[in-house]
Automatic annotation (TrEMBL):
Residues 36-189 form the Beta-mannosidase-like galactose-binding domain. Residues 257-304 form the Glycoside hydrolase family 2 immunoglobulin-like beta-sandwich domain. GO terms for molecular function: hydrolase activity. SUPFAM superfamilies: (Trans)glycosidases, beta-Galactosidase/glucuronidase domain, Galactose-binding domain-like. InterPro entries: Beta-gal/glucu_dom_sf, Beta-mannosidase-like_N2, Beta-mannosidase_GH2, Galactose-bd-like_sf, GH, Ig-like_fold, Ig-like_GH2. It comes from the Bacteria. It is an enzyme of class 3 (hydrolase). The keyword Cell membrane does not apply. Belongs to the glycosyl hydrolase 2 family. It catalyses: Hydrolysis of terminal, non-reducing beta-D-mannose residues in beta-D-mannosides. This is beta-mannosidase.
Length: 770
C-alpha cells in the first residue's frame, strides 16, 4: 500500500454549539464565518494561541480561560487531490478528539466518538483522479454530549471530572491533580489517504512460545487480503536477521489466515534493561505469486518469553507474589509511571525520544502507561523496544466507576480490540491492566469491584481474543474476590503506596506489605528558571495563599472546593517534616523541597531493592511533567532535572550498595545485583563530614542476588551522612545514606550536597534548583 499525507494547515471554523444552525459544510460559508489556520496534527487551543486569540494557557492562571470554549464546536476543512485511483481507498484519522462527523465533498462518510483509537472510512467510489476534493470534519462539545447522558447510581467519578464517564477522551483532560482542565478538540494525530492494492499482507503477529539461548519457538500469525482465484498459487516468505543470526522460511498458502511455527537455533534473545541486550530481528514478509512479490512488509521481532507470577492475595500465613519473569529469569522492576507528554496531545510524539532517553539513562526497565492518559503510538513502543524498557499498559479508565450497561460495554470492547491489535507485536509490551485505581473506587463506594463487568469480562475477553499469550490484570491495584473478603489493603499483592504523604520513613511506608509498588511518589518543587516561565513575576513568592501555585500544583479547575487544593501545603509540610522549618525565601524552599523529594524517592526504591525476592519491583511516580507544575515528577515540563533524578540514577544501577534502616542499634549494608552475571569488587563507606572510613572491603554477590556486607553501629539520635563507593567491572558507582531521625539542618545538608554530587555519576550541585 501507499499513503498520501493530509497533514499540514487546514481551515478551522468555530462557534458556540447551538448558536448557529449549521448542520452541513455548506452552512459555514453561508453563515459568513471566517476561518483561522489550524495545524494537523494539532489542538484547537494551540491554533487560537497562534492566531493571537488566546494567551499561553501554560502561564499563570490562563488555563482557566479555556473554560469558555468547552461548549464550542469546531469545523476542520481542507482541499486535496489524487493523481490516480487504486483498488481500494481509505481515509484514516489516527487520532480525532473527539465527537466527530466527516464529510467528503459535502457527503457524510462517517462518525466517530473516541479520541483514543484510529478511525477508517472507505472512499473508493467518491474520489476521482485530478479532481479537487473537500474534506470536512465537525467536532462537537463533549460537555454538551455528557450532559445529554443518563447516569445511574452504580457510576461514580470525582466531582471535578464527572464528564469523563461516557466520553472516550483522555480522562485527565476533564481536570486531574497532575493536569489543568483542558477539554480540547482537534485532529491530534495524522490524517492520511491509504491506497490499498489487490493483494496485501494485512497483519503479522509474532509470539515467542519458548526460548533459551540454544533454541526458540516463535508462533507466527498472518492475515492476508488476497484475490480468491490466485490464492492457491501464493507463497509466504518470511526472512529475519539480527546481527549474525538469521532465519528464512517459505510456506504455500491455503487460506488468508493461518499460523506458522518458526524454530531458531541459538537465537538472540530480547532482554529488559540491565539483564542483557534488547535484541531485535528485522523481519521481512513477502507475498509471492509466480515468482513475483505482490506485497511486502517489515516488522521488528523481539524473541522473549514473559510471565507474570501473581497471587490473588498475600498474608503472613500465605505470602503471595507479584513477579515478572523474562526468559525464565525473575526481573527486579525499577521504573516509573508514564503520564502523557503534554496537556495537548498533538505535541506528545515530538517528546517521545527525549523522554524515553531519560528513562534509559535512569536505568528504568519498565514504564507504566497510566490509565488517565492516552494509548501512546508505535513510535513510543519502538523506542521502548530498542531500549529494553518493558511497558505496563493500562486501558484508558481511571479513578471512577464507569457505566456498566451494554452500550458502554460495546464502546469499550471496540476500543480494546483496536488497541490490542495495534500494539501487541511490541516485545516491550509486558502486561495489560484493566484500569487505574477503579477497584479502589468501587471499594470506597461500598461496592465489590469484582462486579465490574468492564474489567472482569469485557476487557479480559478482548485481550484473550487478540493477545491470549500476554498477561492481563483487571485493575491496578487489583482487589480479587478473596482480597475483597479479607477487607485490608495489606492483602493486595500490588499496591499504590500514597497514604498520608507524611514523612517518607513513617510507619505507613516502612510497614507496607505488598510485593509490587505500582505507584508511589513525593512532591518536589521545580527549578526557579522553570517557575519564572509559568508564573507571573508577582506570583513566584510566597507560597502561602498563592493562587498561581495552587493552579499549577493542586487545582485543575479553579474551584474553591477542589479536593486537590491541599497539595501546596503538603509540599511545604513535607519540607517541615525533614528540616523542621518552612523556608522564608524561594531559593531555600526549592532546594529543601527537592532534597525532601530526592531522599524520599531514593528511599522508596531502596526499600524495594532491599526486599528483593519478596518484592518484585517499584514504579515510582513519575518521570516527566506534561504541563508546568509543582509535582512528583523528577524532570519538569521544560526538561530541567530535579535533585531526585540524580539520586534515582545511582540507586537504579544494576549493582547497587545500600544501607537498610536501623535495627538493634545497627544499620545493615547490602548489595543488590539485578543482572544475569555475578558481581564483585571493592567498596568503601565513609563519613561525609570527617572523611573517616567506616567500613571497606570487597563485595561479592551472585547473579540476580542480594547479599549482606556489614553492620554499622547507628544510634537513632546521631545524624550523619555516609558516602558509599564501589567498583564493578572497572566502573565506579556511588550512593549515600542519611542516618538519624529528623529534623535535619538544612544548612548542614547544604554542606553535604557537594560531597554527594561528587560521587560517581557526578552532577553540578551549584545548579540545583536554579
Amino acid at each position: 500500500m501507499r499513503t498520501i499525507s493530509l497533514d499540514g494547515l487546514w481551515d478551522l471554523y468555530y462557534f458556540p454549539q447551538g448558536e448557529l444552525d449549521i448542520a452541513r459544510p455548506a452552512g459555514l460559508q453561508a453563515a459568513g464565518l471566517k476561518p483561522i489556520q489550524a495545524a494537523v496534527p494539532g489542538n484547537v487551543e494551540l491554533d487560537l494561541c497562534s492566531a493571537g486569540l488566546l494567551p499561553d494557557p501554560y502561564v499563570g492562571e490562563n488555563i482557566h480561560l479555556l473554560k469558555k470554549y468547552e461548549t464550542f464546536e469546531w469545523w476542520y476543512q481542507r482541499e486535496f487531490s489524487v493523481e490516480s485511483i487504486s483498488t481500494r481507498l481509505e481515509l484514516v484519522f489516527h487520532g480525532v478528539d473527539c465527537l466527530a462527523t466527516y464529510w467528503l465533498d459535502g457527503q457524510e462518510i462517517g462518525r466517530s466518538d473516541n479520541m483514543l483509537i484510529e478511525h477508517r472510512f472507505g472512499v473508493t467510489d467518491l474520489l476521482q483522479p485530478g479532481r479537487v476534493h473537500v474534506l470536512t470534519v465537525r467536532l462537537q462539545s463533549p460537555v454538551i454530549a455528557a450532559l445529554g447522558r443518563t447516569y445511574d447510581p452504580s457510576s461514580f467519578a470525582l466531582p471535578v471530572n464527572f464528564e469523563q464517564l461516557w466520553i472516550r477522551k483522555a480522562a485527565h483532560s476533564f481536570g486531574w491533580d497532575i493536569f489543568g482542565r483542558a477539554l480540547s478538540a482537534g485532529l491530534w494525530r495524522s490524517v492520511e489517504l491509504v491506497c490499498h492494492e489487490r493483494n496485501e499482507i494485512v497483519d503479522m503477529h509474532f509470539v515467542t512460545m519458548a526460548a533459551n539461548e540454544r533454541l526458540a519457538n516463535v508462533r507466527v500469525f498472518y492475515q492476508l487480503a488476497v484475490e480468491p482465484r490466485t490464492l492457491s498459487g501464493m507463497l509466504l516468505r518470511i526472512r529475519g536477521t539480527c546481527g549474525d543470526s538469521s532465519f528464512e522460511l517459505t510456506r504455500g498458502l491455503k487460506f488468508a489466515y493461518g499460523t506458522i511455527e518458526l524454530t531458531l537455533e541459538q537465537p538472540k534473545l530480547w532482554w529488559p534493561r540491565g539483564y542483557g541486550e534488547a535484541n531485535l530481528y528485522t523481519v521481512t514478509t513477502e507475498l509471492l505469486y509466480e515468482g513475483n512479490v505482490l506485497s511486502s512488509r517489515t516488522d521488528m521481532l523481539g524473541i522473549r518469553t514473559l510471565k507474570l507470577l501473581r497471587s490473588d492475595v498475600t498474608t503472613l500465613e500465605r505470602p503471595g507474589q507479584f513477579q515478572f519473569v523474562v526468559n525464565s529469569v525473575p526481573i527486579m522492576i525499577k521504573g516509573s509511571n508514564w503520564v502523557p507528554m503534554d496537556l495537548f496531545h498533538s505535541r506528545d510524539a515530538g517528546k517521545y525520544a527525549e523522554a524515553v532517553a531519560l528513562a534509559a539513562d535512569l536505568e528504568c526497565n519498565m514504564l507504566r502507561c497510566w490509565g488517565g492518559g492516552v494509548y501512546e503510538d508505535h513510535a513510543f513502543f519502538d523506542l521502548c523496544d530498542r531500549s529494553g524498557i518493558l511497558v505496563w499498559q493500562d486501558f484508558a479508565m481511571a479513578c471512577a466507576i464507569y457505566p456498566q450497561d451494554l452500550e458502554f460495554q460495546n464502546i469499550l470492547r471496540k476500543e480494546a480490540l483496536a488497541v490490542v491489535r495495534k500494539l501487541r507485536n511490541h516485545p516491550s509490551l509486558a502486561v495489560w491492566a484493566g484500569d487505574n485505581e477503579c477497584d479502589e473506587i468501587f471499594l470506597d463506594r461500598g461496592l465489590d469491584p469484582n462486579d465490574n463487568v468492564l474489567t472482569r469480562k469485557v476487557l479480559k475477553d478482548a485481550v484473550f481474543q487478540c493477545d491470549p499469550y500476554r498477561p492481563y490484570v483487571p485493575s491496578s491495584p487489583y482487589i480479587s474476590p478473596e482480597a475483597y473478603r479479607l477487607g485490608t489493603p495489606d492483602s493486595w499483592p500490588e499496591r499504590h503506596l500514597w497514604g498520608p504523604r507524611d514523612y517518607f520513613k513513617s510507619r505507613y511506608y516502612t510497614s507496607a506489605n505488598m510485593h509490587f509498588i505500582g505507584e508511589t511518589g513525593y512532591h518536589g518543587c521545580p527549578n526557579l528558571s522553570s517557575m519564572e516561565r509559568f508564573l507571573d513575576p508577582g506570583s513566584i513568592w510566597p507560597w502561602q495563599d498563592n493562587h498561581q501555585w495552587i493552579t499549577h500544583g493542586t487545582d485543575p479547575v479553579g474551584d474553591p472546593d477542589s479536593p486537590y487544593r491541599f497539595r501546596v501545603q503538603l509540599m511545604a509540610d513535607q519540607i517541615y517534616e525533614l528540616f523542621g522549618v518552612h523556608p522564608d525565601n524561594v531559593q531555600d524552599f526549592i532546594l529543601a523541597s527537592q532534597i525532601s523529594q530526592a531522599e524520599a524517592k531514593k528511599f522508596f526504591i531502596e526499600k524495594a531493592r532491599l526486599n528483593k525476592g519478596r518484592c518484585g519491583g517499584i514504579l515510582w511516580w513519575n518521570l516527566l511533567d506534561g504541563w508546568p507544575q509543582f509535582s512528583d515528577a523528577v524532570v519538569d515540563y521544560y526538561g530541567r532535572k530535579k535533585l531526585a533524578y540524580h539520586y534515582i540514577k545511582r540507586v537504579q544501577q544494576p549493582v547497587c550498595i545500600m544501607i537498610d534502616e536501623p535495627e538493634n542499634w545497627h544499620v545493615t549494608v547490602k548489595v543488590s545485583n539485578d543482572s544475569v552475571a555475578a558481581a564483585s569488587g571493592p567498596f568503601r563507606i565513609w563519613d561525609a563530614d570527617s572523611g573517616e572510613t567506616i567500613h571497606e572491603g570487597t563485595f561479592s554477590v551472585e547473579a540476580n542476588g542480594l547479599a549482606e556486607l556489614a553492620k554499622i553501629r547507628a544510634p537513632y539520635s546521631v545524624q550523619r551522612l555516609l558516602l558509599i563507593e564501589w567498583t564493578v567491572n572497572g566502573e565506579s558507582n556511588g550512593n549515600h545514606y542519611m542516618m538519624g531521625s529528623p529534623g535535619f539542618s538544612l544548612e548542614r545538608y547544604r554542606g553535604w550536597l557537594d560531597a554527594i554530587a561528587s560521587l560517581p555519576h557526578a552532577y553540578d550541585a551549584a545548579q540545583l534548583g536554579k
